Amino acid sequence: MVYDLVIRGGSVVDGTGAPPRTADVAVQDGLVVEVGKLGVGTTARRTVDADGAIVTPGFVDIHTHYDGQATWDDHLQPSAGHGVTTAVTGNCGVGFAPVRAGDRDTLVELMEGVEDLPGAVLHEGLGWEWESIGEFLDTIERRPHDIDLATQVCHGPLRVYVMGQRGVDREKATPADIAEMGRLAAEGIEAGALGFSTSRTLIHRTSRGEPIPTLRASRDELVGIGRAIGATGRGVLQVISDFEDFDAEMATLREVMESSGRPLSISVAHSRSGYDYRRCLQVLDEANAAGLTMRAQVAVRAIGMLMGLEGSVNPLKGSATYTAVEHLPLAERARRLAEPSTRATVLAELSGRTRDPNQPVEQMLSRQPMDRIFVLGDPPDYEPDPSTSIAARAAAAGRPAEEVLYDLLVGGDGSTLLYVPVANYVDGNLDAVHEMLAHPHTLPALGDGGAHVGIICDASFPTSLLTHWTRDRTRGPRFDLAWAIRRQCRSTAEAVGLLDRGLLAPGYKADLNVIDIDGLRLDAPAMVADLPAGGRRYLQSAHGYLCTAVSGVVTRCDGEATGELPGRLVRGAQQPAGVLT
């Protein structure tokens, strides 16, 4: 046989959790057909030498927001550059279907506010070639991509579609409303949506600052939709919540699981206020012991934001003087801001003496938590020591912290990024993240690829899982490489019903990575202007991904796209094809 692709001599980490072993991998017709020692005379249309590298299944990222980007872009960056071969979008209850023409602006405002996607980008990029969920899936399917994409029924647009302004205003759904939402949700699942998602957090607001439509959805509404989905016998459920009344909220979610019979995942993090993440982990144990399938999605780093002159979070925007130079090219802007007279004026304005009334108070330099701001660096440090914070630097130098932060922002060519870890960094380290990731019912997730484009670039989470957590961490325990690969490949795939991938074994989908694990590293995020309407976003490159293949087709080599677009819409749960003969 002349195989389509052969990966020779790599250290195979197959996704089962088993130790690495030296083996060849043969691919034919999009499937793995052999993992072992292939004969010297074996031929292939393409051969990749993996000597000295590891060979893994493709990464499955279950928490992204490519709902809009997938309709206008073939390349689902940043995820595709970090070993991801399957992404699940439509999370947190925000998306673009179903939709009536008169509600399009409402859904744009919802996505803009919740996921930091500029309205101008969405208005220009979205073609609105759909009304129903099925038509939206058809639109995605018509465009090939560099990775596979699955999507979900989103509660926000569903509620607006059925209830109109009553849904936007968060009014209580009637039994008829619930029945119709359930019918449409089940219809979306039958059309190929992978699951259903909703948001119940005050953090999520529209671009107008209004709470989201789904915030106070009743237990009856969630149970009714869940029961309708359960009747299809397929689909997963995803929820993000503030857990304000912890016991009542968990009781609601438990009833949703019991009435639907479907797996459910929640987002869990460690924060200074709100729910205790350990109580969430305990609930996971209790639910699974009772025969339910409940998981938590956990970020592999702190949940925070980037701060810089080019991003959405720029503390100098509170200054009228800064506003006057904001239009200048970055390097010229930084040079002007570094001039002593300009520096003094901006600092005075930011102290509140002459603040620009058109800028929000939250952007003022003096309002930032200086003991929680760090220089990100290149390569970036995502577990910085508290002794390196802006406050600590200022104290050591005997200078005001605001001046130290200002000088860092405008220094050099103005591209310095500051890192503000918030959740998961309460104790000044990532020990809580280690505890959450190690739990048997959690999954690495929450990278939000395609969203928060001017604040974060957390789609690089899979690379951090391999570098920081299996190799580089010095401030606490690490994880075994084979364990991490299983979690990012097979465990994530199983959680959403994609049982045809996440393993390197005969009969499974030939999504794979060849990785120089010793040389794998992240660059600092950089701002690029490649979105519709000239929109800008942070992208983050990685070095060490030697080869990525989707369905046996090589999509990336040495960090560069090959131009191949084998990625397809994944419609519903999948089963392995079986062993080829």
Automatic annotation (TrEMBL):
Highest taxon listed in the record's lineage: Bacteria
Pfam families according to UniProt: Amidohydro_3 (PF07969)
Domain (Amidohydrolase) ranges: 46-554
Gene3D superfamilies named among the record's database cross-references: Metal-dependent hydrolases (3.20.20.140)
Name of the protein this chain belongs to: Amidohydrolase family protein
Species of origin: Pseudonocardia kongjuensis
